[in-house]
Amino acid sequence: xxxxxxxxxxxxxxxxxxxxxxxxxxxxxxxxxxxxxxxxxxxxxxxxxxxxxxxxxxxxxxxxxxxxxxxxxxxxxxxxxxxxxxxxxxxxxxxxxxxxxxxxxxxxxxxxxxxxxxxxxxxxxxxxxxxxxxxxxxxxxxxxxxxxxxxxxxxxxxxxxxxxxxxxxxxxxxxxxxxxxxxxxxxxxxxxxxxxxxxxxxxxxxxxxxxxxxxxxxxxxxxxxxxxxxxxxxxxxxxxxxxxxxxxxxxxxxxxxxxxxxxxxxxxxxxxxxxxxxxxxxxxxxxxxxxxxxxxxxxxxxxxxxxxxxxxxxxxxxxxxxxxxxxxxxxxxxxxxxxxxxxxxxxxxxxxxxxxxxxxxxxxxxxxxxxxxxxxxxxxxxxxxxxxxxxxxxxxxxxxxxxxxxxxxxxxxxxxxxxxxxxxxxxxxxxxxxxxxxxxxxxxxxxxxxxxxxxxxxxxxxxxxxxxxxxxxxxxxxxxxxxxxxxxxxxxxxxxxxxxxxxxxxxxxx
Length: 510
Description:
By secondary structure, the chain is of the alpha/beta class. The chain is 37% helix and 20% strand.
């Protein structure tokens, strides 16, 4: 179902607070706004209507190196390393307050740049501010241990910042993914080179402007706007970068992991998923249907943890699928600025064609197309819109069952007993997320315990919390973000031993 027409937003008004250099949105390097060294720019396109919203500097490897230079100087010689945890926390609390003050602006920037409905970008902006507050509070908390050892020694550990952190983020949550990486890194005392997606860099640029207004030391935050093949690879491969954190596809994650071997830098990889949503016949019917829709069609399915495989008990299958398809057909698809819109566009024509390729593959491999499967035209013809799509009668060897589509495409599998449900849930190279719906509490816990996934839910899908770790098993990544785990990932652990009986060891003869 397409949403109604609405007034077109004024891009210049939404982006009024972004810096410009010769009409181009610049990068932020070493506390200064700068264009790409070679002068290359990129036009950013609103995926809802195909219109250019702004031109942004297109960084190359040389620009990434400049940002690394600035970060290196800020960490090695600048004041940030000597800034107390209390002072770092105070600055991050101020950032959180500023994000709250400019919430409407951040919402509109991400909707303009990425197409997400305003109700989704509002959640992102609220959560971003809360994430800064969480890590601001964590910065001043104890971060070490003491040990009783069999010697006259005071032995303990401290956590210290890793140093220069390269952070590469995707386009599906532009503001939130930036904050998930920046907040713990800065709270721990690191400096950052952030590379947002070349498709959606505008909210990261606006965030950098806030950092400038709050007078963070130059080089503590650097934002490089460019493609992964050049700017991103330069960050991952640099021997002067101490850690790289990446969120995105598993294929790119492998490349970053290989590049990071240049100096065996620390890595955090949050990668793809093909997450199972297991529904038993005894589940609360309306709740399970609702979350099955939310699990796959939120953000048009462009979510790494999307519940893209619905695994439903055979006894419930027909009734459940009938109701699910009925509601999916009613989802209001349209421009994110339209208050009636419930699902927005695919991020780009290239990605839309990729999703359409999977839909074609599902048909050719014999899956039954229950609903959707087509590009939306009419008032939405200029955008990248695909109708909510459901495939039934699938088999495990189908590409749509095994490969991450990253779009509004749900595949349905059926099971007869608990053991088969678990086997199907784990029949994937990924292990990011998963859920189970049942009113049998013991069964729910049995299934969740055997599900090979890092983020799981019982009788819900998708809620995330700054306080809890985020990451996956198997080929869904390495390490965890958020919570105390996310803070620890940006620290080195140092052991310190203090001799309490100062005297010669006597190991060698005098």
